[in-house]
User: What shape does this take?
Amino acid sequence: MNRIATALAAAGVLLTAGFAHADTLSDVKARGTLKCGVSQGLAGFSAKDDKGAWSGFDVDFCRAVAAAVFDDPSKVEYVPLSAEARFPALQKGEIDVLSRNSTWTLQREAELKLLFAGISYYDGQGFMVPAGKNVMGALELGGSKVCTQSGTTSALNAQDYFKQNKMELELIQLPTVDEVVKAYADGKCDVLTTDVSQLYALRLKLPKPADHIVLPDVISKEPLGPVVRQGDDAWLNIVKWSLYALLNAEELGISTASLDQALKSDKPDVKRFVGTDGAYGEQLGLTKDWAVRIVKNVGNYGEVFERNIGSQSSLGIPRGINQLWSAGGIQYAPPIR
Amino acid sequence: MRHRMMGAALAAVAALSFMAADADAQMRPPGGMGNQIVDVPEKPGYVPSADEEQLDPAFRRQPVYFRTNEPPGTIIVHTNERFLYLVQGDNRALRYGIGVGRDGFQWAGLQKVTRKAEWPDWTPPPEMIQRQPYLPRFMAGGPGNPMGAAALYLGSTVYRIHGTNMPNTIGMAISSGCFRLVNADVQDLYNRVPVGTKVIIRQAPEL
Assistant: This one.
């Protein structure tokens, strides 16, 4: 019996050693910075300026987590990663969280042993058309010449979609994105198809971006969100609820502009959010004002969206499917209580 | 409600004190999500150029994803976002960029379009005259009229959805009016919706 207990204890030690970095929050605090994996440069999502300062929708999520932990959104060490390098970097512990337009799939959780904390941006394949054509939706595209990049899932998805809806399709596949954009700009095709977020980025490369619209239809699922390693549930909770704090703030009407008013609010859900009622921050291993720190330093989800990729950015992506569930979209955060 | 009105008034005074110099400069809302009202005086008689009438792509009329239980043909205004949605059904809506006036923030809920008019006359309400005493007491409809190309009157209220002769105020929270669209957009909306159309105004939640 004793021997078994000793063996178990030893195994426990080994197990702990194996997960030497299972207390990510303590590591982050000891280091004084959050190591956040981002893309090497993607307009609106993560980009570095001349002075080396990072900004973007994905970058703001790194800043939100740093704000929750440190009350200082600048305490982030950005690790720019290629598509190939991003998951190994997370697995090896080179970063604490990955915030790099990554699609949530089964394989990435089950095989790569990672966990998605939530969906920060619902992406998916869409269609861009000249605004002057007065097309309202993708079902009106029958008989169109559609340009896309060859060898991508976009080509397959387009073929499936047109076939399923009994529409004629002339698919023009070109090897590079630049060739696709040029063919569309030159009028060699009526429609350009790829993921919606990319359509808005490509629109900026056209001579008159405002003369083109992206249709509301999304025909494939590319849910993007922050990712963590398996084995540290407490850290997963912190990353997950940082995202939910951004969303809940918007839903409750708490923004950088209204934060002072929110701190004086008598509404129960607002009081729980700002920490004047309950100990929700402490339950996460953070402080009472964890969510206030996020809004104060980064804003709410809507502010982050509009500033980086929405109506205040050159991309001008409509909230659309990423609007809150209560306002026309499907973004939905569980409540803080 | 009283708090919000006071806050708005204070914000307007603050804005006036340091923004008066460039009140008619090209301005976009700094926060987008805030309802800090910027004091932009009306410019009756001013006729904008075709260039000015071209909105930023983000504020142009476009079909967007929009999930709602309201039937097609319903107008839904999100004052906080500065967008007006005309529900099309099948999870989509036509979205128009708007400017929201002080009155546009005063009221939320359900109304109906009770009257439509093209190039309506303009009789500035007394509160507006008080703020901007130089305004005319009456101005006949036409280009240069702050009411713009069309107006949709809401219920028996003084609220309305109208055009504008100041296209650069789209996207802003401004001192006067209710909900304004550029003239091409308000004309488009006028042609699409009949009298009797359901109008839902959604404000930011109260804290």
